[in-house]
Amino acid sequence: MRPDDGADKRRLGLDHAAFETPDPDATAAFYERAFGARIVKTEGHPVMAYIGNMGFAFHEEGGPGNHVAVRMSSEEREELKRRLDDAGVDWEERDHGIAKGVFFRDPDGRQLEAITYAGGNDPRRR
Known about the structure:
Blueprint: E1 13-21, H1 24-35, E2 38-40, E3 47-51, E4 54-60, E5 67-71, H2 74-86, E6 91-95, E7 99-105, E8 111-117
């Protein structure tokens, strides 16, 4: 689905891997002990464990499901939605407050999210 238009000028990057867990705090604490992750808890959001420029999002069970998120601009997200439509791939957009995400599945059923933060970056990453 990637257009072949010469140089790749996109600013895509892995943003986070998300997992549902019965105890997000305990899981995040394990990542803190094992990797020295910086833990961030924000009301209404998953418990985040940041390791370098990568985040792990630990949701309570019944959340959005396990997925991998790719960060992109709002223009790139709109283009992705068009390409998904052209390919007949179902998607759902969700507003996270601090970001908007487009959720869809790859051909093997893995859930992916294309995420765009309101200010360009995840404000919890500081």
